[in-house]
Design goal:
Blueprint lengths: L1 E2 L11 H22 L5 H4 L5 H22 L2 E14 L1 E7 L13 H14 L5 E7 L3 E8 L2 H9 L13 H10 L9 E7 L8 H10 L2 E7 L6 E2 L1 E2 L2 E2 L9 E2 L3 H11 L3 E3 L7 H9 L5 E13 L1 H16 L3 H11 L5 H11 L2 H14 L1 H14 L3 H14 L3 H21 L6 H21 L4 H89 L3 H8 L17 H22 L14
Parallel strand pairs: 3-4, 3-6, 6-7, 7-12
Antiparallel strand pairs: 1-2, 2-13, 4-5, 8-11, 9-10
Helix pairs in contact: 1-3, 3-10, 4-5, 6-7, 7-8, 10-11, 12-13, 13-14, 14-15, 14-16, 15-16, 16-17, 17-18
């Protein structure tokens, strides 16, 4: 349920002090009756008096008053779709964005004060189309004439001093840009609201005013600033001219008054607390002719204030002629079932989306396009983005109304973007890119049906940016996979090289060990051979004749000097060997002599 006049809801709070007042009055009256007449004598003295009946009447009066208050709030539930024709003017706001608008003779500065005034002005428009032209040394159409006041306000807030690269103030070109933006086929009066400080550095604005008069375009001018003027601040202090002197910008009222009078409009000077744009609307624009604009399919809620008004009348009637049966009838009337549309709307507003979907089933069967569109809204609230995307697609395919189709296409693209953002699985990157690409196409189709849809433009840019980010992410993933594969191949090659190096080292160690073993074996064989030769030499020396031994006892000087051969004993070794052999021979002789019992003669051998 919604209220057509919610400003009356606060007055319903008055019912609380009224309840307190009635309770106090009943108690006061009862206390006074007790003072006059004893309670036990009431039935005799005042037989028709019934305290409970008085309480019931008071309750009925309060309920009737409450129902009347609710009727004033215009309660609404249930809805239907119908074609709505709009009537309105074409208004173009031409706003000066030159650096002179930064002067602070009107706080915080001229441009900011103008933006605030235009924002408040747009809030009062009802069906009038409004556009925006920004100008300085040149001009451009910032926002075409539209009834989408939210989009106009966003573009108004985006303006800043210096948004036009070319400096200066060219009023003639700005007025020409505004005049060219009007729809020539419209029969409505066309209005231009010029907001500037009046400085003009090129062109002939008066000549352009004459052209506006011929084209039946009214020009209203608002002068921003003071006649005394103010310095223009900049990043380096204040703006200076070519001679190095600071520039002081003052209001040029004469030019603006002349321009406005040429076209049948009038001039207003802005002042703190009264910018002047409201006076222009009330005195100059409100009475102009309005043209029927395009029709659109609008959702119209059913007015239910009549039920509360009827209930208030019944309650007052029951208060005058109180009958219990009438109260029962009234309660049954209030308990009457609501319409099917009210059921799903009520559940939707409460957040009970499951019952809202069930209530929409019959509506979808009767009206497939509108029903599927509403189903998409409910499923989107449930964060079932895939289901809502399908419902919006069905609505767009089944409807013949371009406005509903444009909304369904826009919402379908939004559901695709929401589902893409919700999906966090990196393996689904290709599917997310495909969804973003499809969303781009849907927003483009929506813009083709409604080129001035600001939300569709923003979501289109968002979808393109998201698609670009995901494609870049995909490239990075592919590069990471390729780098990882190269790293694995390199590691494999390094491992194979390391294994081969270990095998070569083991083989070299084995070869060195075998070579060392061979050398040791050869050395052992040589030692054994040497020992054999030494032993053989010793045996030969033992068997040699004494003459040989005598010859060996000759002085060294008598023996010829010959070089020592391999395996030949040295002279010292030979001498020791001969001594040993001589001792052995003596021992053998002693053993052979018989012992005769006499003294043994000892012969000196030293």
């Amino acid at each position: 349920m919604k209220f057509g006049a919610p400003e009356f809801l606060k007055w319903l709070l008055l019912i609380i002090p009224l309840i307190v007042l009635f309770v106090f009055m009943h108690r006061q009256r009862a206390a006074r009756l007790v003072q006059l007449i004893s309670y036990s004598a009431w039935k005799t003295v005042i037989p028709g008096h019934n305290e409970k009946r008085g309480h019931r009447r008071t309750v009925l009066r309060l309920l009737a008053l409450l129902c009347l208050g609710l009727a004033l709030t215009r309660p609404q539930w249930g809805s239907h779709w119908e074609e709505v024709k709009q009537r309105g003017l074409d208004i173009i706001v031409v706003l000066d964005t030159s650096k002179s608008m930064l002067a602070e003779d009107i706080k915080p500065n001229r441009l900011k004060q103008a933006q605030w005034a235009v924002r408040d002005f747009v809030k009062n428009l009802k069906g009038d189309r409004v556009g925006l032209v920004a100008f300085a040394g040149s001009s451009f159409l910032q926002c075409p004439a539209t009834v989408d006041y939210a989009a106009f306000t966003m573009m108004l807030d985006d303006l800043y001093a210096g948004i036009i690269p070319r400096g200066g103030t060219a009023i003639e070109q700005a007025l020409k840009t505004a005049a060219d933006s009007f729809d020539s086929k419209s029969d409505a009066d066309r209005v231009i609201i010029l907001i500037t400080d009046g400085d003009d550095h090129e062109g002939d604005p008066v000549r352009m005013a004459g052209q506006l008069r011929k084209d039946n375009i009214k020009l209203f001018c608002i002068g921003v600033g003071t006649l005394e003027g103010e310095l223009v601040p900049s990043s380096e202090g204040y703006v200076k001219n070519q001679q190095g002197q600071v520039v002081k910008s003052s209001l040029n009222e004469s030019l603006l008054e002349k321009l406005a009078s040429e076209t049948g409009g009038f001039y207003v000077r802005s002042a703190p607390g009264d910018f002047g744009i409201d006076r222009i609307y009330k005195l100059g624009i409100a009475g102009l002719q309005r043209d029927e604009q395009e029709t659109r399919l609008a959702k119209v809620y059913e007015e239910r204030f009549g039920w509360f008004a009827a209930a208030a009348l019944l309650l007052l009637l029951a208060e005058g002629l109180f009958r219990p049966a009438m109260l029962v009838v009234f309660l049954m009337f209030l308990a009457a079932p609501e319409t099917e549309a009210a059921d799903w709307v009520k559940a939707y507003r409460k957040g009970d989306y499951t019952n809202a979907l069930q209530a929409l089933n019959q509506t979808t069967e009767k009206f497939p396009d509108i029903g599927n569109y509403d189903r998409g809204n409910v499923l989107y609230r449930q964060k079932d983005f895939q289901g809502s995307e399908k419902a919006y697609g069905s609505a767009a395919a089944q409807t013949t109304d371009n406005q509903l189709k444009q909304k369904a296409l826009y919402n379908r693209g939004t559901a695709l973007l929401a589902g893409t953002t919700q999906q966090k699985d990196p393996s689904q990157l290709d599917a997310k890119i495909a969804a973003a690409t499809q969303a781009v196409g849907l927003f483009e189709q929506a813009l083709a049906l409604k080129p001035d849809d600001r939300d569709a433009k923003q979501n289109l840019e968002r979808a393109l940016k998201l698609k670009e980010q995901m494609e870049q992410q995909k490239k990075e993933q592919e590069k990471q996979k390729q780098d990882k594969k190269q790293d694995q191949n390199q590691e494999k090659k390094d491992q194979q090289k390391q294994d081969q190096q270990q095998k070569d080292d083991q083989k070299n160690q084995q070869d060195q060990q075998q070579q060392q073993n061979g050398q040791d074996k050869q050395k052992d064989q040589q030692q054994q051979e040497q020992q054999k030769q030494d032993q053989k030499k010793q045996d030969q020396q033992k068997q040699s004749k004494p003459s040989d031994q005598k010859d060996q006892k000759k002085p060294q000087s008598q023996q010829p000097s010959q070089p020592r051969q391999a395996g030949e004993m040295s002279e010292e070794e030979a001498r020791q060997l001969l001594d040993a052999m001589k001792q052995d021979e003596q021992d053998q002789r002693m053993n052979l002599k018989p012992f005769l019992g006499g003294p043994v003669r000892v012969e000196k051998d030293w």
